[in-house]
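Forwarding these from the shared drive since the link keeps breaking.
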Amino acid sequence: MEKEEILKRAKDYIAAEKDERFRKEVEELIAKEDYKELEDRFYQTLEFGTGGLRGIMGGGTNRMNTLEINMATQGLANYVLKAFPDKAKDGTLSAVVAYDSRLNSDVFAEATALIFAANGIKAYLFSGLRPTPELSFAIRELKAQTGVVVTASHNPRMYNGYKAYWDNGAQVIEPHDVGIIEEVNKVTEVKSMSKDEALKSGKLVMIDKEIDEKFWAMCKAQLFRPDLIKEKAKDVRIVYTPLHGTGAMHVEKVLGDLGLNIITVPEQREPDGNFPTVEKPNPEEKPALTLAVELAKKEKADGVMATDPDSDRFGTAFPDKDGNFVLLSGNQMGALLMDYVLRSRTELGKMPKNPGCVRSIVTSPFGDYICKKYGVTMFDCLTGFKWIAAKEEEFEKAGTHEYVFGLEESYGYKIEREVMDKDGVSAAAMCAEMILYWRSKGKSLLEHLDDMYKEYGYFEDRAISQNFPGAQGGQTMKAMMANMRSNPPATLGGQKVVKVRDLMCDPDLPKSNVLQFYLESGTIVSARPSGTEPKIKFYINSMVPAGDGSDAWFADAKKNAGALCDGITADIQKIIDAASK
């Protein structure tokens, strides 16, 4: 990008940004003539991706700041006014706004609520930080037309984000996401009003315990065996970490009400957007659980549970026979939860006539085999929990199936129907009950997982991420995907690629920039640029078919799956290295 264009965009931003902190950052960059940094901040405008609007906080159109929040909210408000003309005319439109523990989240959330209010849309704003699943729940509970949660989920501390939701309680998908962007791009003026004025007029309503209590009750209502919990709860000790996020208030309350012994990691209990004890507040990553595992060993706990800052993701670790804690992947915990939900519905006579489960296309097919055993239909969808919610809504409208469980490999699970997004709080409650159930059968969760492998086949999954920041990074990823489309690999890990699935032209799913390579063993390798971060991800979902179920078969299956994943990883790294040159 030419310097003149960079400077023009920067000066336009300075003129429009009312937040002095962000405006000053850009002014200082211009004074220092730091055109490399300025280009990164202005070469594009943040757009809605799989998780909405997300980026590094700072001044610039390619950053999360007050101006971008204001423009996005005004565009969203304009779209809502057009989408619900009768309610707009009657003055009965409403929106719910929540936020997590990240820096600036409270500021961005209040600005969002006041813009809704100024546009004649009643804004329900949580009085303090709340989890993403509660925002989804509140939209449905309050019968609002839209909602926003300010969060960057599991991203590093410099990020923040803005997830937009629709009246069904799910994140916006087509055509709404495209329509909102069109409205955002047309915004020339942002309406707002003072907080005092909004409160006095009734256009801003603060909410808290009246929603909290219903949310807690809903989470507990999902459980199958309350009598077992009452009888056995005191036998189980759980170490929990909210990773400085929103989870402590809810997980401690729900699990505590069930009678479980919950020990929260003290250094990570209080909300803190600086995330001082972790580099990334992501329960998917082993370093984030270091303090929790150390405490669990000390306390001789039966398990570790973790939620990310907005409490929609749920991570776990459990002790093996030697007392060493094993971190379960999202695919493994998803398989365990699915097995428990379907098993419990079957045992208790609660399985609906046409049950359906949903997983994302990059999630292990492990669950497909579990579904087959219980006579449940498995559906796949694009990556992002909004697509799982969309499939559930499709079931309801068509009357073809009843939703019973949804999962994605990135530690997302949805047990309930009242929340249209992944929910780490209800997952924690169900996991606790599942621990008690298998303990009553004389097994640990790790032992039951091994039994499942022996029954269904062995599954091993890996994910490889490569960051490509800046304008050049985006071009590199585009070129990499284009090359894999025109010249797909003939083999991966020494196995033939027998089929290529291109989600840009797949008849069964919406267009998405994803490629999947099917190997002769049944292993699937997927390539997907992130919709919210400057990186590309490769997913390996390997499988070794079930054998005789012996310990010898199990050992060989693990060895063979690991070797295959190692070989595929090496081949993917060659693709990344070639594209990076």
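-- next protein --
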Amino acid sequence: MQGRDSSDDRMMQSGTEAAIQALDPVMALMSLIQITGDRTLLHHYWDALDGRQETVVEAFRDINAHDLRKRVDPVIAAEIRDALRVAVKAGKPAVMPHIDMPMFRQMSRLLLGKDLPEMSMAVAFQHGGFTTDTRVRAAKDIPPADFKVIVVGAGMMGINAAVKLQQAGFDYTILEAMDKVGGNWLTNTYPGAAVDTPSRVYSFSFAPNASWTQFYPRGPEFLSYLERVTDKFALRERIRFGTWVEGAEWDEARKIWTVRAVRDGKSETHECNVLIMAVGPNNNPNYPNVKNIDVFKGPVIHSAAWDHSVDLEGKKVVLVGTGCSGVQVATAIADTVDELVVVQRQPEHIIPNPQAHASVDEIERIAMEQIPFVVNWKRLQSLESQMGDMHGMVIKDDDYAAKTGGFGPINDGMRMYAEGYLRSHFPDDPEMVESLTPNFPVFAKRPILDCGFYDTIKKPNVSIVRGELAEADDNAVILSDGTRIECDALLLATGYNLHFGRQFDIRGTDGRTLKDAFDPHPFSYEGMLITGFPNFVFMGAPYSYLVANHAVVSEQQVHYIVELLQWMVDDHLASFDVTPAATRAFVDDVDANLARSAWVQCGSAHGYYRDKGNDGKKKVILAIPRHNSRIWHDLRSPREEDFGVTRREGGQPAGDRKMDMLTI
């Protein structure tokens, strides 16, 4: 059998050598400690490294701090790197692949240059990928053979649920409407579509990706990641692709859900003990109400349903919307079209993002791929900014506001940061600065990480107008103020309809539909459960967003789901349902705190954060006004007193097994 060419080995070795040489000494020490298992190295090098830590360069940070840090003594740095070089070259299994919490506490302190808050310590340990087992409940039994789980959706949440259900021993099936995994990343294929969360942390902690090519990956690269996770955990045989779920009905007598679906044009039904909806809130394009839009002769394309058959080259294009999708589309097509007119209903806070289009340096990628544990410690560096106290960022600081007239110290700081960034792009154009300056707090709308939008609208073939799309004729669009703009194509970056399950015919206790239950507004308990719908979990339900990225939210929710299902197994439960009192207490507490937030105290800001109910009133239901580290702790275990349950016939809680004394 022919082995690998020696030249390949030499190339790999030279790449690894270069990666070790370029690696920050503190990062190198983290890897060295785990490979060798020599815990004393931490104390040996502490004084030489502390205060000289590398700072991650990314948005929402003082990026100057990276260059202002003290440098490690070159002799010490060389000593650490030489030891790491020897350890990596030896190719032996790591002596300490798993670190305990006391060691993590000290290693993270040296790496980050600060102590993580105690509430965030276990959170960072898990989301950094230093443990893949977060189970709290000590299982007393395995799921019985007739216990079935159905997951609807094979996007990021559904894949996460499948991995952890499989590891916990639950028999599950995923029903997916499309022919591939990926969810929204299959449908959002517009030019410039990219993740606006750093790639290091927009991935599962149990499957970190060392090979990102960009700090903010484009859609195809993220889809490729989800495909690899699906294959790594052998999920495909459990996914029924091309299966469109129409609805589901709870059978109170049998304590099961009957799910109705259509596959290849044929109706089919599935039964399960527990139904998990993992479809997310962003479901289908939101088309604005435009008079005579059908008269317009050119193509009308929504960003969430992009038509790649349309060639925009040389055309005059009107783009409506300047949210996250809108600025990405504008930046991507500006050099292709003949003329681009951007219609902005209201300005947005745009945050500098020096790495928006930056590629991950090959040396850094090699370090994460080939030097053990570097990918985890770099992931922790990117998580660190989310782990501290954020007082005055989203929740209004009343004392501060009374003294300054502002909102909160962090919120005002970010606002000034964004406004300074805007002025730096238009130093001689005060009218443009005024036009692009929001008059509401940061986070009243989703802040945008700049992908080059300000530079785009300064191009000679690009203009931006304030207004709202109202009407169309055969070759133009007309704004609400009467402004008429001739164009060849109309692009709509106008967001999504947030149905929160109301697009499905889901019927719970007494046949009540989810749509009826969500009148006038959707609600949930702990962002997942809805009273009156037993054995039903809606991942990413109301009150679960805006304080963490999708990967983090889904992992925390899936952990809770597995704990909940294991409780059913151990106590032989046939059904669970959250009590009305528990739901009311949760919703009342969340709503009271939301009232003090920038999401509610939003001034003139509009947008998808606010659900318009049948009563005509708008209500913030997307966000949860809690630090994500608190949410992590809240979701460790179900509070059994918040549930009404029924037991399987003849079932009793599993007791402790008797231990008889053995003799010889």
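The chain has a mean pLDDT of 94. Residues 215 and 355 are 6 Å apart (CA to CA).

- D.
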